[in-house]
Amino acid sequence: MSRPDLNLLVTLDALLAEGSVARAARRLRLSPSAMSRALARLRETTGDPLLVRAGRGLVPTPRALELRERVGQLVQDAEAVLRPAERLDLKKLVRTFTLRTSDGFVESFGPALIARVGKEAPGLQLRFLPKTDKDSAPLREGTVDLETGVVGKMTGPEMRAQALFRDRFIGVVRKRHPLSRGKITPARYAAGRHVLVSRRSLDWGPIDEALKSCGLEREIATVVGGFAAALALARASDLIASVPERHTGSLRAGMHSFPLPMPVPEITVSLLWHPRLDADPAHRWLRGCVRDACAR
């Protein structure tokens, strides 16, 4: 069996990234006819049409979609192998990294992270964005470099993940709230009016499942999209907020916090990034900084 032409990987990567023979040809500085011949060879080699005509454009086949991320990573890995190794000089590093995090992360872990980055890599700037959903598209597209959150069904299968810390849900109320005094039972907790945090406007979650197992149901007075909003409402009313303990440490200052009176599964907050940045020295260093900040 003849050895496949590995140069075709570069061609395939360009075609799948551009979705156009003409644009892929310009990207690789080839003529359109040469790129068309290369596409024909790729179709013969893979046994799949890869790109098919749809109106005036081309659309990828299921096989092409399956190959796109794998081929892109293979090409990047090959380029990294052939690139001269450079030692990371943090003092000379000038770069901006974008991090997408949920409410409370910056407030709780940002000061330590920013202080270390400022001391060791003064030319590096951190840009924090709010995490409004669990879509992995920003990481995949490169508009976000790092993300924190709980790995779930919405997390892209190709994403790298590393656990940062375990967290548990706790109840939070204003000072001098009735629940700030006396023993809190499941019935007493459920009898209050609650504010629920849900990015998808759902009115049911793991806490409700835990209450159901006790034969109880709580009243959801309102649903908000983030922990900060939930705690702000609880601070100014008799509403009860239930939020992750470590994640919201700074946001809960001046409020009364208590363990939930029934068992609720803990969550694991992880660091997420796209594999194309896996071997990047500066990105790898920053990942270590985030891990250290969360371990404090």
Could you characterize what this model shows?
There is one protein chain. The chain has 296 residues and is of the alpha/beta class. 39% of the residues lie in helices and 22% in strands. The strands form three sheets. Strands 4-3-5-12-6 form a five-stranded mixed beta sheet, with helices on one face. Strand 3, helix 5 and strand 4 form a beta-alpha-beta unit. Helix 1 packs across helix 3 and helix 1 packs across helix 4. The N and C termini lie far apart (56 Å).
* Helicity level: 25-40%
Indicate the proportion of strand residues: 15-25%
How does the major sheet shape up? 5 strands, mixed
Tertiary shape:
elongated
List the total number of helices.
10
N-to-C order of helices and strands: HHHEEHEHEHEEEHEHEHEEEH
Average pLDDT level: 90
Amino-to-carboxy terminus distance:
56 Å
**SS-derived structural category:** alpha/beta
Low-confidence runs: none
Number of strands: 12
Biggest sheet: strands side by side, in what order?
A: 4-3-5-12-6
Rg calculated over all Cα atoms: 25 Å
TL;DR?
The chain is α/β, with parallel strands linked by helices and 296 residues long. 39% of the residues lie in helices and 22% in strands.
Kindly list the characteristics that best describe this protein.
single chain; 296 residues; alpha/beta; five-stranded mixed sheet; 10 helices
Topology:
Elements: H1 7-18, H2 21-28, H3 32-46, E1 51-54, E2 57-60, H4 62-82, E3 95-101, H5 105-120, E4 124-130, H6 137-141, E5 146-149, E6 160-167, E7 169-173, H7 186-191, E8 193-197, H8 206-213, E9 219-224, H9 227-235, E10 240-244, E11 256-259, E12 267-273, H10 281-295
Parallel strand pairs: 3-4, 3-5, 8-9, 8-10
Antiparallel strand pairs: 1-2, 5-12, 6-12, 7-10, 7-11
Helix pairs in contact: 1-2, 1-3, 1-4, 2-3, 5-10
